Amino acid sequence: MSGRVGAIETNQSRRHRYAYAPRSYLVEPERFGHYEEVEWRQDTDPDESDRLLASQWQHLVCFLAREAAADARLTLDQVAEQTRMGRENFWRLIRGVGPMKLEDFAALHRILNIYFMQISSEHPKRVGK
């Protein structure tokens, strides 16, 4: 019977494996999403530049979400209930244990009415050309 429990734990842990942990790019990973200003590791491989930038965006989103939830007098558990993520996965993502999807950013925008960034281009608009 103990072997079965081990198998169940293994299956559960497989379900929550992520490609990378955004918080791992911080000098102090426990600060992920808690402080606006954090120190990012300088020793990242150039091949990881996209993940580093995505981690920086997720950190900012999580920081803003924490602030907005507090301003709205909502707990993060209450916010989690309104997402597709579920409570446990929400907490993993908000702590930077795994990367968020773009739809997770959109859910936090919908629930907390926060804007993370304005997407723009340096190139002139070409619509209608």
The percent of residues in helical segments reads 40-55%
Query: Approximately how much beta-strand content do the residues carry?
Result: under 5%
User: What's the count of strands?
Assistant: 0
Most strands sheet = none
Any idea what the radius of gyration is?
17 Å
Low-pLDDT runs of 5+ residues are 1-14
Helices and strands, in order, run as HHHHH
Defining key terms:
mainly alpha; 129 residues; disordered N terminus
Architecture overview:
- With 129 residues, the chain is mainly alpha-helical.
- Helix content is 48%, strand content 0%.
- The protein contains five helices and no strands.
- It has helices spanning 2-15, 49-71, 76-81, 87-94, 102-112.
- The chain is globular.
- It starts with a helix and ends in a 17-residue tail after the last helix.
- The model is unreliable at 1-14 (pLDDT under 50).
Short structural description:
This protein has helices at 2-15, 49-71, 76-81, 87-94, 102-112.
Secondary structure blueprint with pairings:
Elements: H1 2-15, H2 49-71, H3 76-81, H4 87-94, H5 102-112
